[in-house]
Amino acid sequence: MNLSSALQLSNRQVQVQALGRFLIQISYGLLSFYIPILFVNQVGLSATSVGFALSLCAITEVGGHFVGATLADSPRFGRKVVLSLAAASGAAVALILMVAQSLWLLIVASMVLGISLGCYWTASGAAVMDATNSEDRSQAFAVMGVAEYIGIGLGVLGGSALLALVNESPKLLFAGCGAMFALFGLLIQILMTNDYPSRSKHERSGQGWVAALKDKALVVFMLANVFFTTYVALVTTTIPLYFTNFIAGNDPIPGVSVGSTAGLFTWCYIGVGAVLQLPTTSILTPLRRIFVLMGAMVLWAFGFALLWAAGTFAEGQFIWAIVALCLLSLASVAYKPFFVATVSDLAPPNLRATYVAVSSQCWTIGYFIGPLIGGWAMDQSPLVAHRFWLGVAMSVSVCLALLWAFEVLHTRTAMQPSEGEGTA
Fold this sequence. Notes:
This protein has helices spanning 3-9, 12-41, 47-72, 79-99, 103-130, 137-165, 174-191, 205-213, 216-237, 239-247, 258-284, 289-312, 317-346, 352-359, 361-378, 382-394, 396-415. By secondary structure, it is mostly helical. The longest helix has 30 residues, at 12-41.
């Protein structure tokens, strides 16, 4: 199934959310790719301190998820208000980064970004669930995935082109982020509806969080997905710095400049993902979801092992790097739509934003762990930096065990009679 036919199957609100995801990911592509490079190589901060600042984004994202879910499921506010809040706080992040010359301002920007991300992912995920039924959700989230990949790719490549234009003041490229956040806010205000299943006015917001946290299958699934989100965080925040600072010095081919790193990352990780997302999802949809998720994890392990090979063996470093990025892209493509669809199947209709918010804590944790350990590894010797990827590859075994535990628990729960099903 190609993108046009998939969009035809989606209703107008899914298309609106896909366009919004495209705009948001252009901004995020700029932020995640260029913050580590500019603040380490231009401002002069250490990779560890920048990794620490980026990790704080995950702390405030917890609050963003909580506030976003509470407001998005509320009959008084709803998804549209929360997405508008995400746009406004994202624009504020861009303004702060344009003037930041110190670690504390980077920390402030990172913390505000966490609030924006928490609000966005919670309300956007719930809005897509509202607009689709269970059978179509994997495909709908695959469409969102394509928009995500294209947006990130344009953000990375566009940032590289913009960086060449504003070479004297490189942080002006963050102005592009602000423009994208502003366009996203305008899109939401004009085209998004307020139709969604909300909580009863007599139901307290805290009850939804308690119900979600008591869902043992959801909690175990979150633990497994912490590994996936950590891997994604490592790809977006650590691999660019790894290629720029560790691969370039050993390869006889011309070094990996920021521009060539951006091109390699865009075409081999983001581009491959954009091309393969819909056909891969269509092929894998008939399969049992647990096997799809576990197979994707095996691909993550192979991809990270090849990153070690790219840094360890002087000959053919670019070949190893290209294959590694393509495998990591395929792993993400295979995993993400089925991860989100599984959460939506677990969630009661009136608690969709709350379930998305709870499940999104795995992104919060992953984006706290990933930049922190990745930044630490990039501050070490080349030997440690290279072998770091082998350690990441071996961690996949723990995720596989958790995924199987989730499947056993979920199957056992599904076989039991539901008590009070349909009640608030």
